[in-house]
Design brief:
328 residues, globular, mainly alpha
Length: 328
Amino acid sequence: MNMDAISGELIRLLVALLALMAFIAGNGMLLLYVERKVAGHVQRRPGPYEVGPHGLLQALADAGKLVGKQLATPAGADALLFWAAPLMAFMPVPLMFIAVPFGENLWGLGTNLGLVLILSFAGFNVLALCLAGWASNNKWSLLGAARAVSQAVAYEIPLLLAVLAVALMTGSLDLRAVVAHQGGWPWQWNVFVQPLAFFIYFVCAVAETNRAPFDLPEAESELTAGVHTEYSGMGNGIIFLAEYANMLVVSCVATVLFLGGSQGPVLPGPWWFLAKMYALVALIIFMRWTYPRVRFDQLLNLNWRWLMPLALVNLVLTAFFVKLWGGA
């Protein structure tokens, strides 16, 4: 590869990263507004209504408030690790989006290991929550971090087994190949071939992003706000933005692996991709405001007693049928 080609690829990568940062920031504001409106609807109240028409500018006002707040470091905290944790939670997120094929020729980095890249960078969020809890010098934060680590370690395994079943069936770790393996109509999507894997992936994805009913690391009624307790201003804002961005990432991956990615009739591919992705995000938001938080023993029992054995059985059956019928 000559220098011109390398320079062109680097420029394409930088432009893609800037576009993805804008996409994440815009979606953070949008999802904050949608989440508040959904919460208001579920709890029979109007939600944000005063700032802008129907409260549309409320998220912008909240962002301005967070930016203007003083950044305070708790007494006795490890200042370096305390402020490194929010950055560590957010920085890998644009890199996870970069391998996602939003359309037929619309991706940041074309790689045949896109699935591995996303799963590798996803682990940084657990490390960030662990650092945030330990460096805060607060018992509630430390308990939240311990919960976050045990929850993430437990649910990562069935999630990986569910993803592996699709990769085995497709014969590739390239997200573009997974999309190409499916068709444009719903009955041609992997969700109808691997319904159990989709269910396991979705439950584990909700748990991995610490969303209710699996939001034990930040359970307000027990731990104040868990790992978020000592963060103020944009420290807290970055952690929340990373949480929303991770919700988008797991929905993007589910769209690619199980819902045909950008494939669909009539409309251009990117519109189909966004419609499927936002449908999954809306489902996750509705779940938060509909189901009560589970206890920690229920959280772990669900994984170790049900999801893990089911994921193993599903993977073994997939391997058997792939061997029997010659794979993809």
